[in-house]
């Protein structure tokens, strides 16, 4: 299957999970299940944009007898201001009825209880009118929006204490391979598991709940039993996707009567990646064992599937020109870690072999090199990484 098609199949494979109500504090990284609407006008009253004086009509103005009398933010301030009068006011304070403008403190001069200015104060100057940002019931953001810290701030400003969100997809991670050790140095032909430590936090950054990481070795029955027993929305396996003597994933999926939606993708690294439907509600993404190939599978299949489960819209991909040569493949897409800093486009990183993480760990994004090499103008699409994401996850 072409790489460009695989993401679409994964995104459409699962229905969005049910909605639930989340307190604001727990909602970051989740997805809005319904549009975010304003519960109030914003601002909800006419507000001073500056520290200074609220003035009524043209100057000079008369100030209150009591020099300390003024309106600070958070006060009701409901005495009306008469024409020719002024009152000290703080940024964010409610504008008194009758005021026509705010005069900034640096633009006015007091003598006794008279206020003068040499400036022309336009009607409404430095007043933020009620409803300037939105009216009550306005739609602020559509359903399917990722809840970022900024969305939380907007929701709070607009009066929300909780939000309707899509449930977090629950993911079981299954690390396969008898050759793996989980601490200390690689030795006697065994290597460190590089994927176990990486996947749970990566999945959390994509808005999922990583319920458990189990390490099963290359035991076909243990794999079968784990897949048959789980109630996770998504199982992610690592390794065992190829057809070696200890690659048990395909036979196990056949044994479970799973439907293979994607069985191999024309992408380097990562071509043995797969997507299967275990039951109508449960899916499995098989990531190849080579660590960068596994990341390719995570971005190609798992990320769109999680987006579909969360009801989240696909981000539009950024593009950049490549600032150095990259090897291309005649028929397959290539995914290459790149650095974006320095203003010279996307600089391909070395150490991008399928078994290497050194390039990825220094990368800002993954460049998508189409089959046969980059396009005529040399600009390629970029996949976000969670630590630099513009359209990806937070959490
Ligand atoms: N005859 C063929 N052999 C292979 C092909 C092929 O097309 N024909 N494809 C190669 C490619 S490409 C990849 S990628 C791998 C995929 O292999 P598996 O998914 O079956 O993974 P394993 O064989 O279990 O492991 C491959 C490699 O990755 C290392 N590994 C596995 N898990 C981890 C981990 N958690 N952390 C670090 N490293 C891991 C494992 O030790 C192997 O070195 O197949 C090729 N073979
Ligand atoms: O495509 Mo493999 O996934 O080269 O490592």
From TrEMBL:
**What GO cellular-component annotations does this UniProt entry give?**
cytosol
One example of a Gene Ontology biological process annotation? Mo-molybdopterin cofactor biosynthetic process
Question: By what name is this protein known?
Answer: Molybdopterin molybdenumtransferase
Q: Which domain of life is it from?
A: Bacteria
- Purpose of the protein: Catalyzes the insertion of molybdate into adenylated molybdopterin with the concomitant release of AMP.
Species for this entry: Streptomyces mobaraensis
Q: Record's Pfam families?
A: MoCF_biosynth, MoeA_C, MoeA_N
MoaB/Mog domain mapped to chain residues: 172-308
Biased-composition ranges, Basic and acidic residues, are 127-136
């Amino acid at each position: 299957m072409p790489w460009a098609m695989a993401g679409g199949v994964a995104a459409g494979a699962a229905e969005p999970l049910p909605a639930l109500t989340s307190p604001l504090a727990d909602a970051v990284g989740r997805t809005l299940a319904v549009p975010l609407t304003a519960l109030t006008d914003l601002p909800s009253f006419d507000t001073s944009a500056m520290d200074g004086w609220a003035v009524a009509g043209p100057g000079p103005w008369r100030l209150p007898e009591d020099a300390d009398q003024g309106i600070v933010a958070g006060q009701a301030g409901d005495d009306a201001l008469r024409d020719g009068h002024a009152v000290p006011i703080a940024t964010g304070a409610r504008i008194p009825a009758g005021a026509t403008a705010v005069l900034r403190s640096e633009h006015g001069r007091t003598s006794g209880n008279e206020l003068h200015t040499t400036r022309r104060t336009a009607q409404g100057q430095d007043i933020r009118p009620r409803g300037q940002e939105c009216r009550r019931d306005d739609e602020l953001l559509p359903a399917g929006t990722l809840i970022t810290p900024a969305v939380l701030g907007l929701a709070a400003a607009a009066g929300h204490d909780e939000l309707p969100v899509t449930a977090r997809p629950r993911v079981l991670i299954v690390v396969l391979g008898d050759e793996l050790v989980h601490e200390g140095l690689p030795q006697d032909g065994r290597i460190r598991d590089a994927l176990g430590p990486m996947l749970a936090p990566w999945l959390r950054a994509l808005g999922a709940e990583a319920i458990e990481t189990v390490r099963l070795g290359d035991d076909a029955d243990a794999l079968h039993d784990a897949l048959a027993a789980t109630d996770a929305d998504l199982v992610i396996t690592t390794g065992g996707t190829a057809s070696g003597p200890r690659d048990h994933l395909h036979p196990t999926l056949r044994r479970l009567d799973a439907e293979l939606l994607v069985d191999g993708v024309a992408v380097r690294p990562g071509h043995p990646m797969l997507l299967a439907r275990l039951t109508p509600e449960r899916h499995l993404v098989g990531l190849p064992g080579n660590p960068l190939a596994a990341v390719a599978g995570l971005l190609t299949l798992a990320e769109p599937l999680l987006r579909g489960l969360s009801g989240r819209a696909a981000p539009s991909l950024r593009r950049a020109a490549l600032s150095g040569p990259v090897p291309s493949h005649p028929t397959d897409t290539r995914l290459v870690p790149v650095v974006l800093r320095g203003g010279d486009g996307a600089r391909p990183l070395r150490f991008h072999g399928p078994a290497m993480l050194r390039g990825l760990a220094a990368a800002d994004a993954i460049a998508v090199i189409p089959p046969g090499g980059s396009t005529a103008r040399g600009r390629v699409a970029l996949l976000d990484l969670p630590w630099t994401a513009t359209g990806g996850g937070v959490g």
